[in-house]
Amino acid sequence: MWFRKKKEKQSxxxxxxxxxxxxxxxxxxxxTDGFSTQNLVGSGSFGSVYKGVLxxxxxxxxxKVLNLLNRGASKSFLAECEALKNIRHRNLVKVLTxxxxxxxxxxxxxxxxxxxxxxxxxEDWLHPFIGMNEPETARNLNFFQRVSVAIDVAHALEYLHHxxxxxxxxxxxxxxxxxxxEEMVGHISDFxxxxxxxADKLNYSTNQSSSLGLRGTIGYAxxxxxxxxxxxxxxxxxxxxxxxxxxxxxxxxxxxxxxEGFSIHNFVMAALPERITEIIDxxxxxxxxxxxxxxxxxxxxxxLQHLNSIFEIGLACSAESPSERMDMSDVVSKLCSIRxxxxxxxxxxxxxxxxxxxxxxxxxxxxxxxxTDLQALLQFKAMITGDQLKVMNSWNxxxxxxxxxxxxxxxVKVSSHATTKVAMQGxxxxxxxxxxx
Length: 437
Known about the structure:
The protein is α+β, with helices and mostly antiparallel strands. It has three domains: 2-115, Phosphorylase Kinase, domain 1 (2-Layer Sandwich); 122-343, Orthogonal Bundle (Transferase(Phosphotransferase), domain 1); 351-430, no CATH class. Helices cover 35% and strands 15% of the residues. The chain has 14 helices and 13 strands. It has helices at residues 12-17, 25-31, 73-85, 122-126, 143-162, 193-199, 206-209, 223-226, 233-249, 264-271, 282-290, 297-317, 328-343, 370-383; strands at residues 2-3, 40-44, 47-53, 60-66, 95-102, 108-115, 168-169, 178-180, 186-188, 351-355, 407-410, 413-417, 426-430. The protein has a five-stranded antiparallel beta sheet with strand order 2-3-4-6-5, sandwiched between helices. Strands 1-7 form a two-stranded antiparallel sheet. A two-stranded antiparallel sheet has the order 8-9. The longest helix is centred in the last third of the chain and has 21 residues, at 297-317. It is globular, with a radius of gyration of 24 Å. The two termini are 27 Å apart.
């Protein structure tokens, strides 16, 4: 992340004192079990990230420990601390505190403590690692969830670019830096130690400061950065465009097929609009196929209708020329319009539904978060004593409940269930829930 320096630097202690949470090296050591490898979430040349649990409150935290052997790491700590304490947005990972002191060996120790994101990174969901005993469909995002996360990230970038005291450039937007909370809301994280280092090198020559290592990640960094151009918000817009294309094609920009001048941008542009189904993430095509049942075709078809618009936004953001790229405010507006159109045909209201087979006659309440929704749906399934058309065969733990037949989710919350005209009888109240935005 890059930002304009203030006239007066704030000390590390000021950053800690202004934090809501006061922690010591000892408390962080205990929270992470002595920085155990079992709690190691990730690592790189600029530091290591651990998951921890605070003894006093039981709160789960993320601890980023800086590698102070790296040149400029201490200054980077001050810069990142200063930036993070002055920005607040629901789609930015919240920094809880900063710690600066010495460890038990008497060596300097610096760390940043963040809120923990329950559902990992967007990378984990777009490109999941499938274990030997794990079904392939165990972790993936449906269409609406992808749209929602894309809007979350766009909102965060719009805030950084237009609503901070000085424009802030993240410089390293990519799926692994987008974290998802328990409600699958996206948060931009890792404001990039390398990018903070760049802020400390502004007095260096252009050639020195234009190193791609200080400007982003290959595949996501805009082409002008490799030519030594100055940082700008348009660089973040380019990275966002690549991210958006990746989210809906399921292909990394560094895929083996993208070489010799052929990029993910070219890949998508060549397919629009006639061959759009050829470039969609296969997971989304599977979702479309599963929902192609009588009376439920519109669910997938309306998604397909909007994919072209989403791809066009991704292409406009990832244009080669910075001047041709969209502004994040416009991106937010267009994506929110797409989301609203997706939700518009659905009317959430209390209504009574009649079925044509045997049921216990009890009501199924479908509200709340992941576990609450799951348990409510399983309870409803248990009430059904006859299912002649095997409608509920998909209602099992092999796939996420948002992909069960007849279930529609807003993010991961159930927004409606459509099981009319499927050979069941009895009554059930469908309760208004309202999809998350």
